[in-house]
Amino acid sequence: MKQIVMAMGCLLFTGNAAAQSAGEYMAKVSDCAACHTAVGGQPMAGGKKFSTPVGDIYATNITPDKTSGIGDYTRQDFEKAVRQGIAKDGHPLYPAMPYPSYAKMTDKDIDDLYDYFMKEVPASNVKNPRNEIPWLLSARWPLHIWNWLFVDEAKAGEVKTGEVKTGETSAKKPDATLLARGAYLVEGPGHCGACHTPRGVTMQEKAYDGSSDLFLSGAMIDGWYAPSLRNLSMPPEELKDLLRMGRSQHGAISGPMSEVITQSTQYLTDGDLEAISSYLLSFNPKNVTPVSSDGAVRYSPTDGKTLYSMYCSTCHGDDGKGKDFTVPSLVNNSIITAKDPASLISIINQGAETPQTQGNISWKMPAYKDVMSKEEKDNLVNYVRGTWGNKTDK
Ligand code: HEC
Ligand code: HEC
Ligand code: HEC
Questions:
Q1: Distance CA 345, CA 384 (A)
Q2: Helix, coil or strand: residue 101
Q3: What is the DSSP string of 167-197?
Q4: What is the structure's pLDDT at 239?
Q5: 335 lines ligand 3 (CB under 6 A)
Q6: Environment class of residue 377 by beta-carbon count within 10 Å: exposed (0-12), middle (13-18) or buried (19+)?
Q7: Concatenated DSSP letters for 112-125?
Q8: Mutation pick for ligand 2 pocket among 230, 244, 260, 347 (CB with most ligand atoms within 8 Å)
Q9: In angstroms, rounded to a whole number, what is the distance separating the alpha carbons of residues 173 and 163?
Q10: What is the pLDDT, as a whole number, of residue 172?
Q11: Which part of the chain is the Cytochrome c domain (predicted)?
Q12: What sign does the dihedral 272-41-99-202 (CA atoms) show?
């Protein structure tokens, strides 16, 4: 009896998976729900608040309700909003909505998405909160310029993988079709660059495709560092596991990336996960041939002083004093001398970046999360907390 129930469970499960429409799948890949669904709210009935320089803006109700939602959007209106960032009434959408990435979506994917939103998403009459900008339309005009500068270049379905450096020793070059699919998913619907690519002064991402070295080179987002995806060093299976489950043999995910995994990447087909990992790993020539899992074992634990000179002294100096206006001094620095070393440990793990202002370019410290073992990090932390006259607070 038990076996029969289990067998039925399996049937139901695969039945459900097969019944998913192409549009529903694309909505997951593009993670529309991440912004358009409030915690505990009805699906796609509106959600996240974005604080902008001119006031707060809310991700709107995009269910097919005629009055509160987008029920009166034609296929053309929908395409304009998603790929060009222009709402039905003609106002430009704030770039929190990742249309510069969605601009690359193919006509077919837009068609499927439109069908899904019109026919499958339940209509909800939840009203959009009023945007807190009374002079909204006049404040929006600079976005037209923003659009003109950064969005027009992208063409539907067109992605640039850049020069794929396959390395001399590679036995196996990545398959071109797989790479192209991966580039499409990452640069287009997956909008991975929205968090992983640094942004310039006007909030535009500094690059939208693999032809620039800045694309996916790492960025701060809401107090988290979304690390560079250009030098990932792990076997493709581990990367797929991370995107499917948020953990792998050697790694784990936390923070805003967890939401990306729960709402989006966990639903990707194995083929699409394979495509994304082969594209991302192609940035790092070392990865073209899968590295054995032994490759992850790096060094046996080293003392703090040696680690400091290996990883930190180039920038912070042997005397810990850094460089004026570029690299902070670690001497008598409150982050180092704090009673609780948590911030110091997070900085070592995640790296750091100076805020970019009009007068200065931003400087970055790399992340060392996977570079040192726990024991090595402890040695390093104890070393910097007890050197150059540093005394930790009691
Ligand atoms: C990272 C957050 C984010 C994601 C992901 C996102 N959106 Fe949006 N979207 C927004 C915000 C914010 C607005 C409102 C912008 C404004 O008012 O200027 C918006 C506006 C819209 C509008 C205009 C709605 C109206 O009221 O006229 C449509 C249509 C839309 N989004 C569709 C989508 C679809 C379809 C997806 C997935 C393919 C998606 N969005 C993914 C943030 C997002
Ligand atoms: C909402 C912001 C956001 C989006 C969108 C996003 N990421 Fe992330 N991602 C992060 C943050 C923050 C981290 C660091 C957290 C961690 O590693 O635990 C991260 C970590 C990762 C890691 C782990 C890197 C490592 O060295 O361990 C991978 C792989 C990754 N992201 C891939 C992707 C891919 C692929 C996409 C697009 C499908 C994507 N991310 C979209 C914010 C984001
Ligand atoms: C490539 C240059 C570079 C390397 C290598 C580097 N750092 Fe940094 N570090 C920086 C920069 C730039 C900042 C400032 C970032 C900011 O403003 O958030 C910084 C910030 C810090 C801070 C925070 C200081 C403060 O006052 O906010 C600490 C602590 C730190 N680094 C420790 C280390 C340790 C330990 C290592 C070695 C594991 C290391 N750094 C390696 C460039 C570097």
A1: 11
A2: helix
A3: -TT-SSPPPHHHHHHHHHHHHTTT-THHHHS
A4: 94
A5: yes
A6: buried
A7: HHHHHHHHTSPP--
A8: 260
A9: 13
A10: 53
A11: 18-121, 177-284, 299-388
A12: negative
Beta bridge partners of 52: 55
State the pLDDT at residue 54. Answer: 56
| Distance from Cα 351 to the centre of ligand 3, integer Å | 7
Grouped pLDDT means (10 residues each) for the chain, 394 residues: 38 50 97 93 89 73 96 97 91 83 96 98 91 51 49 53 40 76 96 87 72 84 80 88 86 83 95 96 63 36 78 82 81 85 89 65 73 86 91 76
Distance 366 CA to ligand 2 centre (A): 16
Q: Is the CB of 304 under 6 A from ligand 3?
A: no
Computed on alpha carbons and rounded to an integer, the radius of gyration of the chain in Å comes to 24
Helix-, strand-, coil-residue percentages of the chain, each rounded to 5: 40, 10, 50
The answer to whether 57 touches 149, Cβ cutoff 8 Å, is no
Strand partners, 219: 226
Question: Is 156 within 8 Å of 104 (Cβ atoms)?
Answer: yes
Give the pLDDT of residue 112: 98
Please report the domains of the chain, with CATH numbers, ordered by start residue: 19-150 (no CATH), 176-296 (no CATH), 304-385 (1.10.760.10)
Which residue matches tokens 């032809």? Answer: 211
Cα(273) to centroid(ligand 2), Å: 14
**Contact residues for 212 (Cβ-Cβ < 8 A; gap 6+):** 162, 206
Query: Among all chains, which residue has been given the structure tokens 């991302």?
Result: 280
What are the start-end ranges of the H helices in 231-269? Answer: 236-245, 256-263
- For 303-331, b where at least 16 C-beta lie within 10 A, e where not — what string? ebeebbeebbeeebbeebebeeeebbbbb
User: pLDDT tens for residues 224-276?
Assistant: 778 889 888 888 999 999 999 988 777 778 778 888 999 999 999 999 999 99
Query: Would you give the DSSP letter of residue 154?
Result: -
Per the listing, tokens 């601009």 go with 103
Provide CB contacts within 8 A for 393, sequence distance 6+.
Answer: 337, 338, 339
pLDDT the model gives residue 205: 76
List the residue whose alpha carbon is closest to atom 37 of ligand 1. 32
Show contacts of 162-169: CB within 8 Å, 24+ apart. 162/209, 162/210, 162/211, 162/212, 162/215, 163/211, 164/282, 165/282, 165/283, 165/285, 166/282, 166/285, 166/288, 167/285, 167/286, 167/288, 167/289, 169/289
